[in-house]
Amino acid sequence: EVTINYTLNYQISKTNAQELYRSVGRDYSDIVINPNIAEAVKVATAKYTAEELVSSRSGLAEQIEQILTTQLAMYNVEVVSTAIEDMDFTDAFTNAVEQKQVAVQNKLKAETEQAQKTTEQEQIAAGSVIEADAAAEVAKIQAQADLEVTKIQADAAEYAGLKEAAKNKAISEQLTDDLLQYYY
Predict the structure, then answer these.
(1) What is the phi/psi pair of residue 115, to 5°?
(2) d(C-alpha 180, C-alpha 103), whole Å
């Protein structure tokens, strides 16, 4: 159930005011205006669910005003302005709407927290990838340095071997049978 307080500002058409008083009488407000307001509000609100009434208040106000403008024009009454002053729902509906809003807020909070956790995990994963890439680069540089050291050591060993071979060759060229016999 919903109770609606509705305000209608109107004026009687100056050109045909006497027609309203002649056909309806001085109680035109009770005979014409109030029943048309009640009918227009009922017709317009019937198109909405209670939940839609809360979110579509301006659309409802426009529909009621259109209906009243058309209906009251037949009695030479001009609609100046209208307004929905208040919509009062039953406590059960109000509580249900509040519970739904709380549930929606809790859902949004949970989604936000999940998104934040996901972002944090992605940042941790990205940091791990960066650390792994850095460690791999360090290992690569270390391996290249070790390879260079090994090459230098191999070159040094080869040079030492060549030097030793040259020395041995020089010694062997100086050895004669007489000298070998002497050492023997």
Answers:
(1) -65, -40
(2) 108
Q: Which class for 168: exposed (0-12), middle (13-18), buried (19 or more C-beta within 10 A)?
A: exposed
Coil vs helix vs strand at 79 = strand
pLDDT tens for 17-33 read: 888 888 888 888 899 99
Q: Give kind and range of the element (H or E) at residue 3.
A: strand 2-12
Neighbours of 174 (CB within 10 A): 8
- Segment (H or E) for 86: strand 77-89
With b meaning 16 or more CB within 10 Å and e meaning fewer, what string describes 121-147? eeeeeeeeeeeeeeeeeeeeeeeeeee
Host H or E run for residue 6: strand 2-12
The pair of structure tokens assigned to 133 is 């890439």
User: Does the model's pTM come out above 0.85?
Assistant: no
